[in-house]
Inverse folding.
């Protein structure tokens, strides 16, 4: 029961300053993402299909996977607090330009590039905060701190999305949809500027890096992170498992989006589809919260490695149920359990990686971590685009997800290779 017992101590220490920056930033992320989803995928003027949805996911993730290796240079060499602060200011300016394009109904390359910048900066910020978190808490509190930071942030994204949808409904009463979406983006501009100001409460070196740095360049740093993880093979396998889980979650999200947009609701009523999709995401957010709350207790009972393996398996019966009965209520139940188990895997593996890697290398390791996860998300989106019809109805896609989860738990996470008792671990 470590999470409930240690929560008051964590909130009395230095961690809350980092949480304020992370949670507010991710709350604003939710508002911004709801505006983009409304503009690109749930606009009355634009039809949504699997290819368009997959492209929307890929366009914000794949390029960061190419430049992400260079994040380690900054995170392991310069003040992470300053990186977070300056990045939030840059992101605010970037969103002003995005708001102008959205207001003018522009969907071309200029908007795509600006969105790429916004999401690339977001991943840099989150990687920096994750790399700095272990400097604010003791090693024994890493699971609880990650559960608090990562899960609270994810819930804030969901909450921000709900706020964005609520504001859009109010704005739509007197304005065109694109104007409402542009106003939401401007709300996000204010939020990111406030986040930048709040980040000044962190000390310049409080979240690292420490003075004993070693430096290299770009992809070389990514390879260094990979080679470090090869020494700690359980952490590397945990990263692969987390990535595969996220890829499956992305594919299921796209399936749910299309079902809500084109099947469960009339395609001519995208607002109803957006509300249905937002509700499913909200229930998944509840599952995410539950997954984080139970993870410290699960780790205490089963250990990190067995808990990750167990959580990879647990969501598969619900995915099978959804395969047999692909109705809206079963989709919502499945979203809850996939969100729960996915977050349990993520927060547990985050702590596993943090506990194995020294701070001077942690930035580049988390850069590799981000690249692996983002690459898997893109693959999940591409698979969904290839498999899903316009309606979103598919038996094959849930089966593919089930197979990938079971293969991961049975092969990648097999006890002979994924265990705290292996000599390669600390």
């Amino acid at each position: 029961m470590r999470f409930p017992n240690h929560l008051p101590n964590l909130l009395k220490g230095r961690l809350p300053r980092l949480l304020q920056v992370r949670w507010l930033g991710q709350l604003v992320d939710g508002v911004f993402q709801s505006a983009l989803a409304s503009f690109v995928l749930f606009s009355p003027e634009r039809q949504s299909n699997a290819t368009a949805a997959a492209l929307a996911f890929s366009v914000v993730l794949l390029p960061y996977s190419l430049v992400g290796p260079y994040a380690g240079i900054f995170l392991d060499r310069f003040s992470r607090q300053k990186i977070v602060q300056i990045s939030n200011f840059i992101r605010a300016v970037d969103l002003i330009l995005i708001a102008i394009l959205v207001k003018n109904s522009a969907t071309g390359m200029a908007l795509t590039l600006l969105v790429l910048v916004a999401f690339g900066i977001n991943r840099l910020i989150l990687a920096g905060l994750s790399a700095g978190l272990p400097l604010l808490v003791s090693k024994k509190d890493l699971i609880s701190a990650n559960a608090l930071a990562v899960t609270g942030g994810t819930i804030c994204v969901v909450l921000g999305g709900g706020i964005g949808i609520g504001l859009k409904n109010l704005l739509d009463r007197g304005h065109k949809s694109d104007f409402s979406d542009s106003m939401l983006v401007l709300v996000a501009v204010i939020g990111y500027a406030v986040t930048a100001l709040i980040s000044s409460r962190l000390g310049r070196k409080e979240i690292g890096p420490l003075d004993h740095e070693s430096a290299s360049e770009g992809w070389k740093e990514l390879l260094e992170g990979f080679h470090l993880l090869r020494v700690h093979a359980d952490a590397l396998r945990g990263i692969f498992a987390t990535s595969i889980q996220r890829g499956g979650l992305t594919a299921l999200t796209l399936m749910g989006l299309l079902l809500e947009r084109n099947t469960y609701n009339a395609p001519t009523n995208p607002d109803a589809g957006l509300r249905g999709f937002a509700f499913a995401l909200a229930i998944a957010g509840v599952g995410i919260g539950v997954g984080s709350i139970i993870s410290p207790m699960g780790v205490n009972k089963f250990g990190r490695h067995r808990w990750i393996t167990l959580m990879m398996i647990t969501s598969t019966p619900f995915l099978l149920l959804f395969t047999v009965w692909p109705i809206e209520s079963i989709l919502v139940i499945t979203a809850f359990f996939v969100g729960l188990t996915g977050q349990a895997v993520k927060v547990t593996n985050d702590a596993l990686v943090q506990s194995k890697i020294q701070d001077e290398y942690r930035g580049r390791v988390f850069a590799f971590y981000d690249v692996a996860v983002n690459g898997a998300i893109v693959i999940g989106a591409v698979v969904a685009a290839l498999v899903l019809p316009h309606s979103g109805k598919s038996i094959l896609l849930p089966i593919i997800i089930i197979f990938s989860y079971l293969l991961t738990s049975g092969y990648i996470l097999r006890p002979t290779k994924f265990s705290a008792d292996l000599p390669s671990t600390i």
Observations:
- The chain has one domain: 2-412.
- The chain is about 80% helix and 0% strand.
- The chain has a mean pLDDT of 84.
